[in-house]
Design brief:
By secondary structure, this protein is of the alpha/beta class. The protein contains eleven helices and nine strands. The protein has two domains: 12-136 and 291-304, Aspartate/ornithine carbamoyltransferase (Rossmann fold, 3-Layer(aba) Sandwich); 138-288, Rossmann fold. The chain has a five-stranded parallel β-sheet with strand order 7-6-5-8-9. The chain has a four-stranded parallel β-sheet with strand order 2-1-3-4. It is globular. The two termini are 14 Å apart. The structure holds phosphoric acid mono(formamide)ester. Phosphoric acid mono(formamide)ester binds next to helix 2.
């Protein structure tokens, strides 16, 4: 059996193109399972997984939990808002207490960049990063590239623009790494204040004009403005942001080609995307969510064999 080169999935930066292809091929098989009347396999029957979420989540938490249940794992869920973290317990103490209950894998979301990397140096259970602050969100990038491959046949050679709040986005960084490892050309587009100073060092194109970016690309991955991570004003108002960077159906129809429209969610309808764009035939937003379960099944299954 082929194996991943890593014991934990902390970020796309740490994995190889071969790892990504293996995850995709495994996810193809699990996607077939998910389309059967009985959507469950016994692959992780003896494995216990804790979903440890220190930050809000809808898609990622539910998608991991469903993936774990489809693989027949035992699942426990932890949410910091209702936990003893509120009484002053440290991250390491919290996780060690969970592991004392004989947990094999930890899926963790945390607001601090590097939190899962820190844990990986102190515990032996496999760790999957479900988003660490503004750093990485590896399973989101995997399901995004998997969805491009599904819609366009391949990721290699495709032109993908990531539009919006690149500065605060773990989705942007993980997508840049994944797309480049798979041979895509990557552009970022947004107000200059929302582009990191180091962005060109990542080997991506930079475009400030959203119309030019859309005219260039095969795929546009649109991000929301992460107001919860912004300590200062990066643009005058959301109204102005929408005026210059908002994407609607009229703008998509004005292009002389079809492009694929993506969004990791949650969407702020009427800000970065209008409803008529988000719900148009260009959009594969719900396909991304569907593919997330198969991708997370593949990641958990492959990591479990590296215990
Ligand atoms: N895409 C994503 O991470 O969504 P959630 O924050 O709802 O998990």
């Amino acid at each position: 059996m082929q194996e991943l080169s890593v014991r934990h999935l902390l970020g796309i930066k740490d994995i190889t193109p071969q790892d990504i292809q293996l995850i995709f091929e495994t996810a193809d098989n699990f996607k077939d399972v998910l389309n059967r009347p009985i959507k469950k396999v016994p692959s992780l029957r003896d494995i216990t997984i804790a979903n440890v979420f220190f930050e809000n989540s809808t898609r990622t938490r539910l998608s991991f939990e469903l993936a774990e249940k489809r693989l027949s794992a035992d699942v426990i869920n932890f949410s910091s808002s209702s936990s003893s973290v509120k009484k002053g317990e440290t991250l390491l103490d919290t996780v060690n207490n969970i592991l004392a209950m004989k947990v094999d894998m930890i899926v963790m979301r945390h607001s601090s960049p590097g939190a899962p990397h820190f844990l990986s140096r102190h515990i032996t259970a496999n760790i999957v990063n479900a988003g660490d602050g503004t750093h990485e969100h590896p399973t989101q990038a995997l399901l995004d590239s998997f969805s491009i491959r599904e819609r366009l046949g391949d990721v290699a050679g495709k032109k993908v623009v990531i539009i919006g709040d690149i500065l605060h986005s773990r989705v942007a960084l993980s997508n840049i790494f994944a797309l480049q490892k798979l041979g895509a050309e990557v552009m970022v587009c947004g107000p200059i204040t929302l582009l990191p100073k180091y962005i060109k060092e990542l080997g991506v194109k930079v475009e400030l004009d959203v119309r030019k970016a859309l005219a260039w690309c095969d795929v546009a991955n649109v991000l929301r403005i992460q107001l919860e991570r912004q300590q200062m004003k990066y643009f005058p108002s959301l109204r102005e942001y929408t005026l210059y960077y908002g994407i609607d159906k009229k703008l998509l129809d004005s292009l002389d080609k079809e492009i694929v429209l993506m969004h990791p969610g949650p969407i702020n309808r009427g800000v970065e995307l209008s409803s008529d764009a988000a719900d148009s035939h260009h959009s594969i937003i719900l396909n991304q969510v569907e593919n997330g379960v198969a991708i997370r099944m593949a990641v958990l299954y492959l990591l479990a064999s590296r215990q």
